[in-house]
TrEMBL record:
Catalytic activity, as annotated: 2 GTP = 3',3'-c-di-GMP + 2 diphosphate
Protein name: diguanylate cyclase
Organism expressing this protein natively: Psychromonas arctica
SMART domains from the UniProt entry: GGDEF
Keyword annotations from UniProtKB, A to Z: Membrane, Nucleotidyltransferase, Transferase, Transmembrane, Transmembrane helix
Coiled-coil regions listed: none
Source species, domain of life: Bacteria
Pfam families found in the cross-reference section: GGDEF
A molecular function (GO) term: diguanylate cyclase activity
Domain GGDEF, residue spans: 440-568
CDD domains given in the database record: GGDEF
Matches recorded under SUPFAM superfamilies: Nucleotide cyclase (SSF55073)
Length: 568
């Protein structure tokens, strides 16, 4: 057996299904829009970071070109220092000598160091280095021994970065008197030269940091040793920066070797050479999200600066605030919520309209149909429902008319056209009830055609039917408007006189009897008389008792010679 679903249940299911389908579509569009927004944000900033790397590369290429040009004069400057020393060795003025060396030098700076035979920097224009014992470095000691012994005359070191981000190249020569090793340090303040160009590159929507990977540490080119109270404090900061840098890089690369490197003592390894093997230099950018600072970060890297021997790697970190992305995502969310609420409102209004104009109307029509009632107070803006209501009312009205006709026919005697025994039974019960409740009296008369069997036998049943019709017409013509006439049997008729007592009903019966006698008994018709029984209702009467009594009076009239009236 198939299960049926109610209109309300179907309506609820339809509404929920439609909302789920629409909401799912909106949510899919929302998530897709968020994904596209996030990807576009990352791609846009990725492109900006690539552009930033290329701009920095152009700066570094320029610096490297200038550095190479400057190296051409380094040997001449070393010879100039030797000459200045020989001319002034009795009364050395390092400041004056340094100024002389740096005259007409537009790129970089020359520092003077004079190292005695005990490997100690005895004199220097860079005061922090005075007194430094270089003999503790085995390789330096061996080098200086060879220079003093004139095994080699000159050494040009590879470029090195110190902790202040100064790029240096050292040239060494023993003085003519063999007392000192004369050393020129050609240095370039890397951060200063870059900062000259930096303001052309920076934007309000991003932050740029430059890091240099040297042999032992990661350095921020803008951090100077003078910013710290001591060299140890500077070293601690550099160590912490190195660990932080490696941790950032590992957020993107997820490399166990880099993770291990971040917790290792980088002074015991060659950091820059290790990073060359682990990080994809000059390739795609390394990116990660810093949730604490709410930034998107990109690391771009380049190869060794100032030649492969320098082993110095550059890393450019560009950081973009995630606030614009968050704002766009919030806008997407607000749009999603607005459209969802709007759709829900539209669906709710549609549901309300559907319920008011369709569901409730159909339910009301269904109830009316169940109760077999006219739909009088229901209208709908839906034409089909209005047509349904109209068609139903028209059909029901026709049905009621047909029922009334059938009901009327069921209370009508088919031969005479007056009311029948069924109508009499309902009427007499109603009148007895009214009498007992309100005391409204009435009288009841029964008529029977005398010797009607002879008429049928002598003239036939068709003639007998005509006689019965004539009796009915005669009785109908001679009663009052409020009196009720019934045929209850073959030739038996009953008249009820509402609100009429026995005496008044006797007068009415006598009048009826005489008029019927005149109208029915003519020369061309057989003689026809009526025997009559008459009674008035009493408080003890029922439908059966009053009929029995009046029928008894009819029997007495028949027994007493017929064509008479017998009453109480």
């Amino acid at each position: 057996m198939n299960k049926k679903i109610s209109l309300k249940a179907f309506n609820a299911f339809f509404f929920a299904s439609l909302f789920i389908i629409v909401f799912s579509g909106l949510y899919y569009q929302y998530t897709a829009s968020n994904k596209i927004t996030s990807v576009n944000f990352k791609n846009s900033n990725y492109t900006k970071s690539l552009e930033m790397r290329e701009k920095f590369r152009s700066i570094f290429d320029k610096l490297e070109y200038q550095f190479i040009q400057a190296e051409g004069q380094n040997i001449d400057k070393l010879e100039q220092l030797s000459t200045l020393y020989n001319n002034q060795k009795e009364h050395l003025n390092l400041k004056k000598m340094e100024d002389e060396l740096n005259r007409n030098v537009n790129f970089g700076k020359y520092d003077i160091f004079m190292i005695n035979q005990d490997y100690i920097i005895e004199k220097a224009s860079y005061e922090k280095e005075i007194g430094l014992n270089l003999g503790q470095f085995k390789s330096v000691k061996e080098l200086f021994d060879k220079i003093f012994n004139k095994t080699i005359k000159l050494d040009i070191s590879s470029p090195k970065l110190d902790l202040d981000s100064r790029l240096k190249r050292y040239l060494i020569k023993v003085s003519d008197d063999g007392k000192y090793i004369l050393q020129i340090g050609f240095s370039l303040d890397y951060s200063k030269e870059i900062n000259k160009q930096l303001h052309y590159l920076l934007t309000e929507t991003s932050q740029t940091n430059l890091y240099l990977a040297t042999e032992f540490f990661i350095q921020d080119i803008n951090i100077k040793s003078k910013d710290f109270k001591s060299k140890a404090e500077h070293n601690e900061y550099t160590k912490a920066l190195t660990q932080r840098f490696l941790s950032d890089i590992n957020l993107a690369l997820k490399n166990k070797e880099i993770e291990k490197l971040a917790t290792s003592d980088t002074r015991k390894i060659s950091l820059n050479k290790t990073l060359v093997k682990l990080i994809p230099l000059n390739e795609k950018l390394i990116s990660f999200t810093d949730k604490k600072k709410n930034t998107l970060n990109f690391y771009s890297s380049t190869g060794s600066l100032f030649g492969e021997k320098s082993d110095t790697l550059l890393f450019i970190k560009t950081s973009f605030p995630l606030a614009p992305l968050d704002s766009d995502l919030r806008a997407n969310l607000n749009t999603f919520l607005f459209i969802s609420i709007l759709i829900l409102l539209v669906l709710t209004l549609f549901e309300y309209y559907k319920k008011r104009e369709i569901t409730s109307k159909i339910s009301a029509i269904t109830n009316m149909i169940k109760d077999n009632k006219m739909i009088e107070n229901e209208t709908s803006s839906i034409k089909d429902i209005s047509d349904l209501i109209g068609s139903y009312n028209k059909t029901l009205n026709n049905l009621h008319k047909q029922i009334n006709i059938n009901k009327s026919l069921s209370y009508t005697d088919f031969l005479t056209g007056i009311k029948n025994r069924k109508a009499y039974d309902e009427s007499i019960e109603k009148l007895i009830s009214q009498y007992k409740r309100y005391g409204t009296t009435f009288s009841l008369a029964i008529f029977d055609a005398d010797d009607f069997k002879k008429i049928n036998d002598n003239y036939g049943h068709s003639f007998g039917d005509t006689v019965l019709k004539n009796i009915a017409n005669a009785l109908k013509s001679n009663i009052r408007d409020g009196d009720m006439l019934f045929r209850i049997g073959g030739e038996e008729f009953i008249i009820i006189f509402p609100s009429t007592n026995l005496e008044n009903s006797k007068q009415a019966i006598e009048h009826i009897r005489k008029n019927i006698d005149l109208s029915l008994n003519t020369n061309n018709k057989p003689t026809l008389t009526l025997s009559i029984g008459l009674t008035e209702v009493t408080s003890q009467d029922s439908k059966d008792s009053i009929f029995k009594r009046v029928d008894t009076f009819l029997y007495v009239s028949k027994k007493n010679g017929k064509n008479t009236v017998t009453s109480d």
